[in-house]
C-alpha cells in the first residue's frame, strides 16, 4: 500500500482540461508550447485538449497576425450533470481573480473572456 504522501502526489483536483483553460484565461494569446510547459504535459496533449474545448463550445480561436487568440465562453456550464448549471466562469474567476463582467458589453461574442482584468475579484454569485 502506498503511503498517504505518495497517493496524494498521483492526482490533482483539476484536470488537464481545466488547467489548459486557466492558462488560456491568463494569456489568451499563449502558444501551445508555453501552455504545455506551464502545465507539464506535451504540446500535442494541449492541442488535443484545445480541440476538445473548441468542439464543446468552451473556447473559440482566431488568428491575430501569425498568432492564435483564444476566447473563453464563461457562461458555458460544467460538463458533469450535477454541476451543469454552474458556469465555468466561476472556476476561472476563482483561479485568475479577474472581473468577467467587465469584459461583456451585452452581445454573446462580447461575453467571452479575452484576458485578465487586474482589478478586484468578481463578487460571489447569490444562489
From TrEMBL:
Residues 17-59 form the HTH marR-type domain. The lineage of its organism: Bacteria, Bacillati, Actinomycetota, Actinomycetes, Streptosporangiales. Residues 102-127 are annotated as: Disordered. Gene3D superfamilies: Winged helix-like DNA-binding domain superfamily/Winged helix DNA-binding domain. It comes from Planotetraspora mira. It comes from the Bacteria. This is HTH marR-type domain-containing protein. Pfam families: MarR_2 (PF12802).
